[in-house]
Structures are given as structure tokens and as C-alpha cells.
Predict the structure.
Amino acid sequence: MDQILSLTADNLLSPVILSFALGLAASLARSDLSIPEAIAKGMSIYLLFAIGFKGGVSVASHGIDATLGLSLLTGVLLSALLPLVAFFLLQVLTDLDRLNAGAVAAHYGSISIVTYVAGTSVLESQGLIYEGYMVAVAAAMEAPAILSALWLISRGGGDRKMDSDLWREIILNGSIVLLVGSFAIGWATGEEGLAEISSFVVSPFKGVLCLFLLDMGIVAGRGLRSGSGLIKPGLLAFGVLMPVLGASAGLACALLLGLSTGGTVLMMVLGASASYIAVPAAMRVAVPEANPSIYLTLSLGVTFPFNLTLGLPIYVAVARTVTGG
Amino acid sequence: MDQILSLTADNLLSPVILSFALGLAASLARSDLSIPEAIAKGMSIYLLFAIGFKGGVSVASHGIDATLGLSLLTGVLLSALLPLVAFFLLQVLTDLDRLNAGAVAAHYGSISIVTYVAGTSVLESQGLIYEGYMVAVAAAMEAPAILSALWLISRGGGDRKMDSDLWREIILNGSIVLLVGSFAIGWATGEEGLAEISSFVVSPFKGVLCLFLLDMGIVAGRGLRSGSGLIKPGLLAFGVLMPVLGASAGLACALLLGLSTGGTVLMMVLGASASYIAVPAAMRVAVPEANPSIYLTLSLGVTFPFNLTLGLPIYVAVARTVTGG
Amino acid sequence: MDQILSLTADNLLSPVILSFALGLAASLARSDLSIPEAIAKGMSIYLLFAIGFKGGVSVASHGIDATLGLSLLTGVLLSALLPLVAFFLLQVLTDLDRLNAGAVAAHYGSISIVTYVAGTSVLESQGLIYEGYMVAVAAAMEAPAILSALWLISRGGGDRKMDSDLWREIILNGSIVLLVGSFAIGWATGEEGLAEISSFVVSPFKGVLCLFLLDMGIVAGRGLRSGSGLIKPGLLAFGVLMPVLGASAGLACALLLGLSTGGTVLMMVLGASASYIAVPAAMRVAVPEANPSIYLTLSLGVTFPFNLTLGLPIYVAVARTVTGG
Amino acid sequence: MQTHDAKRVEITIEAVMQSRLTEALKSAGVTGFTILPVFGGSGRSGEWSRSGQVSRASGMVQVICIIRPERLDALLEAAFAVVDRHIGVVSVTNCQVLRAERF
Amino acid sequence: MQTHDAKRVEITIEAVMQSRLTEALKSAGVTGFTILPVFGGSGRSGEWSRSGQVSRASGMVQVICIIRPERLDALLEAAFAVVDRHIGVVSVTNCQVLRAERF
Amino acid sequence: MQTHDAKRVEITIEAVMQSRLTEALKSAGVTGFTILPVFGGSGRSGEWSRSGQVSRASGMVQVICIIRPERLDALLEAAFAVVDRHIGVVSVTNCQVLRAERF
Ligand SMILES: Nc1ncnc2c1ncn2[C@@H]1O[C@H](COP(=O)(O)O)[C@@H](O)[C@H]1O
Ligand SMILES: Nc1ncnc2c1ncn2[C@@H]1O[C@H](COP(=O)(O)O)[C@@H](O)[C@H]1O
Ligand SMILES: Nc1ncnc2c1ncn2[C@@H]1O[C@H](COP(=O)(O)O)[C@@H](O)[C@H]1O
Ligand code: NA
Ligand code: NA
Ligand code: NA
């Protein structure tokens, strides 16, 4: 418990988290502080490229673990099954209709790459190592949740036709392609490639992350201001409970796979985090009747800050205890 | 005198100043060289974040000086009183009407953060140290000038109603919030926080400043090309005299406060510099009848280059002489 | 031969080339991966500034070579004469009309600065030095080709009036001004200037180049998808043959000038590369009837990847053999 | 297809006044509008461009409202109160819309 | 100058639906259109802004097609099929064009 | 409110021709116009998008002029002289404006 508290305090006092808090506060106070859309997108491209590349390099250096394939498979299953849990929990806790519940559930099966990145940066500051291929697991977990959520929704009648365009959009979504592609580049070029571009992908990484989280704080605050009416107590409870369930499922998987302590934390983070880029876009196409304010506010305004502030230290402490790392 | 000349030569030959000159020349020659708005805003966000953060870290390391509070107060007073001087000088030197004179005066009470940054970078190349909290003083000086200018204008009749929205916009202006917020983050996380992100906020800082000044040169040149007809000799004289008066007032304050040599230079720079981001926006809301070409051209096209090229070396030389630093 | 193969393999496995391949693949697979226009422009401004600045610093450190003037002159002539070769070759290989052939020819006389940059980065990884002023030669080669191409077109009748606006646009084109300007800044500030901003213009350079090439791959792929119908076999052959001819002409010039091995490679690269920024814009103004899909697809979709992947290693191997470097 | 008469109001206004205008529109009962970025322009106060600008002071946006004809006057009164002392242009065009129940 | 009657159709639609709309337009024989970026807006589903957004989920674009009057109905049918279940606004204005052979 | 008849001219033109068009408009006595960025489009010369582009060669802008009806012809002549050889679309709509003295 003490460990959790001190970790939480450390975590809360990092520039990354404080930048998020600054953005959130500015936005709630209705400051006009804002970051241009192009800059936000540019930062997200940088982060995806850097995280994928570094993951690939790490696989190139440490060789492929026998568990790589199993981990990918586990990630896919986790992503596909968590929406069922989320859907059930939503029906217990909230009065969302099937469409909205399905759309929310899709977000929680999928993952948030920024939460993942924040996780790796906590691990590094704790000196915990982790499997480099976890970033590939992250990529593998982006899409399956969408499919199971659409299946959940279509069971209620009404045809949710997955046309081939939508399939392509989901699978070849820009963030998945960039993550997988830069992972492959890092893998192919290895330490030598890293030496060439490490002062781009490594050194400024955490600083860029600060500004990116500043932006996410601003956007989350804006969402909370306009969407707060929609976030009833039941939904709020879901936004905090679901990541804990997701992290527990991630923990179970990590233990089965025998991941390192760091890898266990990241698997928990992937389970716990909710998408706010790829899944919302897919939901707008496939389930236009669902209200985006609900899933965006919940994912970005409730679950993301929860994971960032309290979740991460808890996941680290639990993983250390359980794995003895 | 020799010292001033050599300092000036050094200063003029820095990449930062030459980048401004390049932008200015390109724009006056009507080259299509331009920097996208989003990139310019992105760079300004980076610079504000970095300068605030480093200021906060410096306060965390050196402890709070007894003069911090006094310096803030002095800054507020300086910002509030300089518009009166400016307004008087404008009535002597130019034939601007009350509205335009008031709008111009507001700019000269407030500050230009880029001039401040250029000042710190001259100090660093000279090995002069300065109080880290000066960046907080800079933030404190952004807004008061607006209020006294509006008071000056309203004395001439006509209601300049400061509705609560305008108040909030001025006080919670994005650049103030970011500067103060990142100052607080730097303070809270200290040297440890700096170690995490110094290869983002420290190493590339001066290079980004070059590109930002390239952009400011382009924008200033554009303004000079279209607004040059408005800048009569009297106004031009004001644009050069006023920063000297502002710097003198800053010097007096710094001596009263007993600041370090570097701190004295920065207080002079704050007094001397004129706003070109926050104040123009406030003036468009509160005094729409005033002509923006006048105050923007004067601030960005005359006073900014004056401070950058001749002003800075003079302020450094004077401060060194007076404080014996 | 072995040397070429191993160089090619090395080259193909660099993060820079693989990033281009990733962008190309994503785009051909119709992924929605895209980089905002403002970010792409921002990166190109960064690259031009950094490459010009470093060239200038290198001239400042190594002194002006007697051949600087001659190299510039040679560059101008090469740029002016290559379009004649290209035009002739197009008439042999393709059935393009005079307007389209002239527009394409203009591109091949001019240069691609990114190909140049990729060339310098191969040289650096091979430990080959080169004349710093080659970047000034690159700048000098941007425009002359446009004039000879317009002359070629106007010989066929129809007035291609070069109004003074177009002259100014070509000569004061943003990329020329930035390249020449930052070269001058680098020259003026020398090693001292470089020390101030090297963690901006040197360290992250190659990483930014990766993301920029990712973007170029995306744009090239988009062009290939929509313009592939236009690229008949004859045109395709031209897109591969012409760079080889251009490189040969560059080689001859370099030998006459007595350039270093690295300088020889760069002169070959300048001869071989085709413009895709400045010339297309000039052609839209001066020869609006020519089809931009033809010259853009050819330059960006065929010749650029050819130079990047196969061309560079060949040019290096040939230059090493011929100069004995 | 079945279309219905409506008015398309296009208000080009300074970016700093955007939120004041949209607040005024909402007070006048107008809830639907679309905001387009403006890249530059020219008017009695000279020519301008957003490129490279950091301050919001020199920049405009275009607010487009499509409304039922009977609500035009309320909208124009509200818009005029904001635009009055500021630079900006208001134009109204007749148009036809699908799904009239939305307006 | 000689001008010709035409229709200006303005479709404000979610960014995620853009390619589906333009495909539908092309199937309906409409080959000319211009796409404007949209910065923000407000409607029954609340207010939004693009600033700082990374996801394409919350964002709209404006597709403008200028067509001969006789092709309006085909265009509206095609557009409506896409817009139907989605948020979005379609308006039609009468206009005059130069160079009618282009449309 | 009191409104006045005017014409809204919308010229979609290549970005490289923007300054030539606005110079021509100014020579024809048109001083007021607003320039909107264009994100992409499609026409006889194919489909295009600004995203990721560095060159100004492939890109368009939309120039909107609101003018008094009697000045329309001069404007169209001026615009046409520039647009003629270039790709681009010119449309004219009737509109109503507030504050007619401005136009
Ligand atoms: N006649 C017009 N047509 C279109 N836009 C205009 C017109 N007049 C002014 N504008 C826009 O409104 C801004 C301010 O106009 P002004 O108040 O005349 O300086 C200009 O910069 C243009 O963006
Ligand atoms: N009456 C309207 N006029 C202009 N744009 C509108 C209007 N109604 C809705 N929109 C645009 O369409 C979007 C979605 O509208 P809605 O479906 O009502 O939420 C809004 O955010 C606006 O950008
Ligand atoms: N009918 C149209 N409606 C709207 N925009 C058009 C139309 N035709 C062409 N455009 C725009 O003008 C550009 C060039 O058209 P074109 O000359 O036909 O290739 C297109 O890419 C569109 O942006
Ligand atoms: Na999850
Ligand atoms: Na001041
Ligand atoms: Na060439």
C-alpha cells in the first residue's frame, strides 16, 4: 500500500501527468489555450513511429521470444472478449441502449496507445524492462474489439453490414499501419538503425509526450464541459471499474504467458485502456446512431485520466507483487 | 562604447538574429517563403512551454528569492504604468486619436515573450545568470497594460465595457496559461523533471527559436510592406524611443529590487518589449475601431527588430555597467 | 559489382529508405495513413534550413575552394542543358506533345533537394567527405531548367510569356531563398553558430528525414494509384534512363571540376534527380495545358524511388571507382 | 427529391469574435451552424493572410447557418449586434434543403 | 459575360463519410466537386471543434458540387443515400456559371 | 432587417494563380474578397488532396467576392482573363447583404 502511494505520488509529479492536468485545467477554466489540429496529428505520428521503431529494435536485439506469437494471439482474444464483459457491465450499471452500449464496449476492448506509452515511461523510470514486442501486441489489439462489438449490436437485430470498405478502414487504419510498419523498420534495421535516429526517436520523446498530453487534457476538458450531462453515476462507475477489470484480465493473460514484470504491467495497461482514435472513427461509420459524446467523454475524459493517474501505479504495484519483480 | 559595439556585432552575427533578417528580407523581396500557421503556433507553444518549464526548474533549484513576490508586484505596476508614458509620448510625437493611441499604448505596457527569450539566449552566451522567476514576472506583465489602456481610452468618453468574457479571455489567455502552467510544472518537478525532458526543452531550443524568428521576420516584412504608409516619422520615433524609456523604467525597478545583472537585463527587456500576440487580440475585441495595422506594424515591424538588434546589446552593456556584473 | 550489391543492400535497409517504402505501401494499400499538409511543409522547411546551414558552416570551416565559382557555373549550365537532353529523349521514347514534353524536361534539369539530402546521408554513413558548397550548387540548379524548358516550348509557337511576376516567383521561390539564406547564415556564423544550434540541425536530422520520406512515399503512392494509367512503358523507361544520363553528365562535370569523391557523388545526384516542388508550381503557371499528373507521377513516383533505392549506391560505386576515393 | 425553402446565412467575422457571435446566435435560438477556416482576404482595412501568424488578432472565420425563412430576422438581429462595430460581412442566399425537420 | 444556370449543392458531412459520399457521387455521374475543411460547428448533437483533435471521428468536411440543373435529382438521391443515417446538412442554391460545357 | 441585393461570386482556382487573380480583381476595382482553403477535390483532371503535399502546384483556393450587382460584369471579365487557360470554376449566386454601403 505504501508502495502504491509513493508510486502514485511519483507518478502524479511527473511532467507528463502534470501537462495533462494543465491542459485539463485550462480547458475547464475556458482558457483559449489550444493546439492546432495539424500539430496534434504530427505529434501522434511522431509518437507512433518512435514507439513502434523502438519496439522493433528491441525485438531485433533480444531475439524473438517463444511467447511472441502466443502474446499476439492472447492480445487478439483479449481485445475480442473484453467488449463482452464491458457490454454486460454496461447493462448492469447503466441504461444505455444496445447501440450505445455496443459502441462503448468496442472502445474498452481496444487500446489507447498513449496510455501504453505513459506506461512504458513509468516502467523506464522504475528501471523495469519489458518485452519489445508488446507494441505489436498493442497493434494487434486495436481492431478485434470493433468486430465483436458490431456482432453484439447486430444480435439485437438491424443489419450492421460490415462492408469491405469498413473492413479495410479498420485493418489498414493509419495508426495500426504506422505502428506495425515502424515496428518492422526497427526490427529490420536493429541497433544500427537506432543509432542513426536515436536522437530523434529517443531523446525528445518524453518532451513531445508532455505536449501531446497537454493537448489531450485540453480536448478531454472540452469533452467534459459539453458532455458532462451525459456521464451519469452509473456510467462514471463503469469508466473506473472497467479498466480495473481489463487490467485484471490482462494480468491473468500475462501470468499465463509468463511475461516479465514490465510486460505484465503493459498487458494490464492494454487491457485497461480504452481507444479514442481508431474505434470512435469506426463507430461513426458503422453505428452512426450511437452518441459519440458518450463514448468519447467516457474514454478520454474518465478512463484515460484514471489510468494515467491512479491506474498506472496500481498496475505496477500489483504486477511487482504478483510476479515478484 | 567599445563593449556595446562588440556585443552588437556578436549579437547581429548570431543565427537567431540572422534568421529574422532572412525572413524579413525574403518577405520584403516578395518571395513566397512562408511557414504554415499551424507550424508557427506549434513553435510558439513549444517556446512558451520550454521557457516556463526552465524558469520553474530554476526556482526549484535556487529556492525562492525574497524578491520573487516583490518582483511580480513590480512587474504588474510597470505593465500598468508604462501605457500612461506611451500614451503621453504618442500625443507628443504623433497625431493618433485617443483610440489608436490607447491601443498602441497597451502593447508597450505588455511584453513580447520572444524578445524575452532572445534576451535569455544573449545572457547565456555571455555567461550571465538571472533569476529563474523572471519568466513569471513576464507572465504577470502580459495583462495589466490592457486594463490601463482601456481606462485611458474610456476617459475620453464612450463606454469601453469590459464584459466578463473579455476579462476571462485576457487573464486566461492561452500564452499566459501555458507560461504560468509550465512554470508551475517545472517548479513542481524540479531538476528531476528537467532531466527527463531536457533533450526536448533545452537542446533544440535555440534552433526552434531560429525558425520561429524566421517566421516573425516574414510576418513583420509583410506588415511593413502593407502598413509602411501608416508609419509616419513620429510613429517611427515612438517605436524606437518607447523601448528605451521602457528599458529605463525596467532598469530602475531592477535596481530597487536588487536583481542580478542578468535579471536586470531581463527586466529592461520586459519594459522595452511590446506585445504582438495577446494584446492585439484583446484590442480587436475591446477597441475594434483602432486600426490593427498601426499597432501590429509598430510592435512587430519596428520595436521588435530594434530590441533584437540594437536594444539587447545596449541593455546588457548598461546593466553590466550599472550593476557592475 | 559486389560493392554495388552490398551498398544497395545497406542502403535499402536504412530507416530512411524503409520509411519511404512504408508510406508507399500504405498508400497503395489505400490505408488512411496521412500526414497533415502543415507538418509536411514544416518538415521541408526544417530540412532546407538544416542542410543549407550545415553547408554554409562547412564552407566557413574549410575555406572557399577555388572551384566554388566554377561549380556554381557548371551547375547552372547543367541545369539549363539537361532539359534539352530530356526533351530529345522524350521525343524518342514517348508520344508526349511539345507542351508536356517541355514540362517534363524542366523537372529533370532541376533538382530534388531530398534526393540530395539522402545522398549526403549515404556519404556520411560511408565516411566520404564532400564540398560544403554543393548545397549552393543545388540551389543554383533549381531554376535554370525552367527557363530552357520554356524556351523549348515556345519554339513550337504560342507565346509563353515570362511575365516579371513569374520571373520573381521562380528566382525567389521559397525553397531557393531558404536554402541560400540558411547557407549564408551558416557561412556567417561558422562553427560557433553550429555549436549553438547543432542539437537542432544535426542530431534529429535523420529522424525527421524518415518521417518526411514516409510522407513522400504516401504522396507518391497516391500519385501512382491515380496516375498509373498515364505512365506508359516509354515514359517509364524515360523515368529510369534520364536519371542515369543526368548522373553521367554530373559525373563528367565533377571530373572536370576535380571535385572530391563525395562531391562527385552529389553532382551526379543533382544531375540525376528531378524536381517535385518548385518546377511543378512554375509549370502550372506557365504551361497550364500540360498535365500535372504526368510530370508529378514521373518525378515523384518513378525517378525519385529509383534514385533513392538503386541510383544512390550505383552513383557512389561509380564515383569511388572513377575518382579512386 | 422533396426539398424545402430555407435561408443560407454566411457571416465572415473576426476570429476573436467567433464565440461571441455563436453565443448570440444561440441566444436567438439558432443551434445549427458550421464554421469554416478563412485563409486570407482583403477589405477596406487592407489585405491579410493567416500564414505564419501566431496571434488570433488577424484572422477571420466564416460561420454558415442554414435556417427556416421565418427565423431569418431573429438571426440577422443577433448577428448584427455582434458584427456592428466589428469588421465582417453578412450575406443571405435562398436555398433548398433536404430533411427540413432538422432546421 | 455569358453565364448559364446551374445548381450549387453544398453537403456538410462527417469526415469519416467523405470517401463514401464522393464514391456515391461518382457512381451517380458527378465528377466535379470541391472539398472544404470545416473547423467546427454546432447542431443537435452539440458543439465541436477540430482544434487539437487527432481522431477523424469528430470532424466534418464540406463537399461543394456545381452541376447542371437536370442532374440535380440524381445527385441528391446519391447524396441522400449516404447522408441518411448520418449527421449532415444538404443545401441547394441556384447559381450561374461561366463555361457551362464543363459541367 | 434592411438588406440589399448583391452578387456572391465564388471562384475556385489553383493556388499558384491566387495572387494573379486577386491582382486582376483589384485592377477591376474589386477590393473586398475572402479566401478559403480547399482541402481536395475532383474534376476532369482527376482527384486530388492537399494532405501531405509540400508543393503549391497541386492545390486550390476558393476566392469569394460579394459585390453590387452592377459591378458583376467587370469582375467576371477580370476573373475570366485569369481563369481562362487554367483549371477552375466560377459561380455566381444572388444574395442579400446587410450594410450595403460596404460593397
Ligand atoms: N466584398 C467582400 N466580399 C467578400 N469578403 C469580404 C468583402 N469585403 C470584406 N470581406 C472580408 O472581410 C474582411 C474585412 O473587411 P473590411 O472590414 O472591409 O476590411 C476582409 O479581409 C475580407 O476577408
Ligand atoms: N442549420 C445548420 N446550418 C449549418 N450547419 C449545420 C446546421 N445544422 C447542423 N449543421 C452542421 O452539421 C453538424 C451536425 O449537425 P447535427 O446532426 O444537427 O448535430 C453540426 O455540427 C454543424 O457543423
Ligand atoms: N462541378 C464542380 N463543382 C465543384 N468543384 C469543381 C467542379 N469541377 C471542378 N471543380 C474543382 O475544380 C478542380 C479542377 O477541375 P478540373 O479543371 O475539371 O480538373 C477540381 O479538382 C475541383 O476542386
Ligand atoms: Na482495453
Ligand atoms: Na513592455
Ligand atoms: Na536533375
Remarks:
- Residues 20 and 213 of chain B are 5 Å apart (CA to CA).
- Residues 292-323 of chain B form the longest helix (32 residues).
- Chain B has a mean pLDDT of 94.
